[in-house]
Specification:
Layout: E1 3-6, E2 12-15, E3 20-22, E4 35-41, E5 44-52, E6 59-63, H1 78-84, E7 92-99, E8 108-109, E9 115-118, E10 123-126, E11 138-139, H2 141-148
């Protein structure tokens, strides 16, 4: 059974239920939105859209932070490990929310609150880091534009 939703950037969209990601706690500021899908951005292999299946306007541009920030690393906390049933590092992937600005090289990435996705369970969580070396608004700079910015 396919699901049809209205999206912020892709108009009406039909997808399979197994494409959804369950955020049991929602996303801070969007706690009622528990189901999301990851959508491609046409002509761009780096960025994607994390789209709520419940709220058309709840859509975030996301990126693998390791493609932009070489020294990014953090430990996943126990509540996240338990919530997502993480057994090994191979079970997960990480994305970060991008805030797009004009000009593009003044855009920022949120390194303080990574999105952790558990591929086996299709669960995800935005984890807030206590490490102040990472910023909510880390500049992505010109290197991203060279890698294929939007």
């Amino acid at each position: 059974m396919q699901i049809q939703i209205q999206t912020k950037f892709h108009g009406k969209l039909t997808f399979e239920p197994d494409q959804t990601w369950n955020f049991p706690k929602g996303i801070p500021g969007f706690e009622d939105d528990k189901q999301f899908i990851l959508l491609p951005i046409e002509g761009n292999d780096i960025f994607r859209v994390l789209q709520s299946t419940q709220t058309p306007t709840a859509a975030f541009i996301v990126v693998n932070p390791y493609t932009l920030i070489e020294d990014y690393s953090f430990d996943i906390d126990e509540p996240t490990i338990d919530l997502l049933s993480i057994e090994s590092e191979q079970d997960i992937f990480v994305l970060s929310v991008i805030t797009l600005k004009e000009p593009f090289d003044s855009s920022t990435i949120n390194l303080q609150a990574p999105l952790i996705f558990q591929a086996k369970t299709k669960k995800a969580r935005q984890m807030i880091l206590n490490d102040k070396k990472f910023s909510l608004r880390h500049p992505i700079g010109t290197q991203t534009a060279e890698k294929g910015g939007i």
